[in-house]
Amino acid sequence: MIKINLLPREERRGTIKVKVPQVAVVALVIFVVGGMWAYWRSVKGEIERLRADAVATRNEIAQNQQTVRLVEQYARDKKQLLDRLTVIQRLVAAQGAPVRLLDGISQVLPDDVWLAGVSKISGKLVVQGYASSHVAVANLMLALERLKPLIVSVELGVIERQVHENKPVERFEIVAGLPG
């Protein structure tokens, strides 16, 4: 048999009611609740894992801070030792200069000159002594000039005639500039 719908078009488009069996609704609710429970369990597990990671990270940070303190102490000790080594090297380098200077003076000292004192005053070398004549003092000054790497400049400070053991001598003071 053929069915013909004689209703006008506006009324024909009505909503179609579909009846869903109750078992499907209950199954859908159980599925949704089960999915939410599974999601909650996974989030709870992730939180516990992140907390464990945070505790492990804090322990690692504590260990690393101790290592950092040891490295900083090592750096301070190294700097202190390098400073000491620098001072020692400077002292060793400076130690040889006075010896070479006195050796050079003793080698160029003329026979008719004798020294009364050699001192270092504010970066200058002061040579005091006696000579038989002005010429002997001039020869000593020229000889000191030839010690150029050890002595920078040579100037006559004082020269005066004195009597020593009933003989006339020249008392002199020569000021020589030292390098550095």
Describe this structure in words.
- This protein has about 180 residues and is of the alpha+beta class.
- It folds into two domains: about 20-100; about 110-175, Gyrase A, domain 2 (2-Layer Sandwich).
- The chain has three helices and four strands, in the order H-H-E-E-H-E-E.
- The protein has helices at about 10, 20-110, 135-145; strands at about 115-120, 125-130, 155-165, 165-175.
- Strands 1-2-4-3 form a four-stranded antiparallel beta sheet, covered by helices on one side.
- Strand 1 and strand 2 form a beta hairpin.
- It is rod-shaped and about 170 Å long.
Give the spatial strand order of the biggest sheet.
Answer: 1-2-4-3
Topology order in helix (H) and strand (E) letters: HHEEHEE
Number of strands: 4
Helix content: 55-70%
Oligomer: single chain
Q: Radius of gyration over alpha carbons?
A: 53 Å
Low-confidence stretches: none
Instruction: Kindly estimate the percentage of residues that lie in beta strands according to DSSP.
Output: 15-25%
User: What's the story with the biggest beta sheet?
Assistant: 4 strands, antiparallel
Principal-axis shape: rod-shaped
Ends distance: 129 Å
- The helix tally amounts to 3
Structural class by SSE content = alpha+beta
* Total count of domains: 2
Average pLDDT level: 87
Concise account of the structure shown:
Strands 1-2-4-3 form a 4-stranded antiparallel β-sheet, covered by helices on one side. The protein has 2 domains: 21-98; 109-177, 2-Layer Sandwich (Gyrase A, domain 2). With 180 residues, the protein is of the alpha+beta class.
